Amino acid sequence: MQWHACREFRDRFMNKRIFVLSSLVLAVSALAAALPYDASADAKAQIEQALAVAKARQGKVLVIFGANWCEDCRVLDQALHSERNAKLIAEEFGVVKVDVGRFDRNLDVVVAYGNPIKKGIPAAVVLSADNDVLYATRAGELADARRMSETGVYDFFRNVTAAARAKQ
Prior knowledge:
Blueprint: H1 2-34, H2 43-57, E1 60-66, H3 71-80, H4 83-92, E2 93-99, H5 107-112, E3 123-128, E4 133-136, H6 150-167
Parallel strand pairs: 1-2
Antiparallel strand pairs: 1-3, 3-4
Helix pairs in contact: 4-6
């Protein structure tokens, strides 16, 4: 009888342990999937690819500079996926997200576009299909994205779109 009780205890303990470990793996996977910036991505190659697509479609490229540790960057990314904003962005731009780490990653790309992160992240640059800068944040316009409403984000990118069109 004792052997049976010991085995039952062991089985219950192992099942709980497996459940906890499985839950932890799922939580970590969900968190990783929710992070918008890929630290291992080749930013230059992604921008080149987006420019090639833009050239074929006669479109523009939106480069968003940010980092996963940055709450404003994650909030902006979430806002850009809302229905209204997502539609505007998809109609106007190919999007590339560039991870700047702790201001120690992809800085050559940042400098190539006039250092739009100087006043904070997230930062944005709109490029023509020929890689000309049509718009760039210079004064930290998006650095407080968590305080911008969804409408505020929409209005910002609608204005950016108009400014980029005017320069083209």
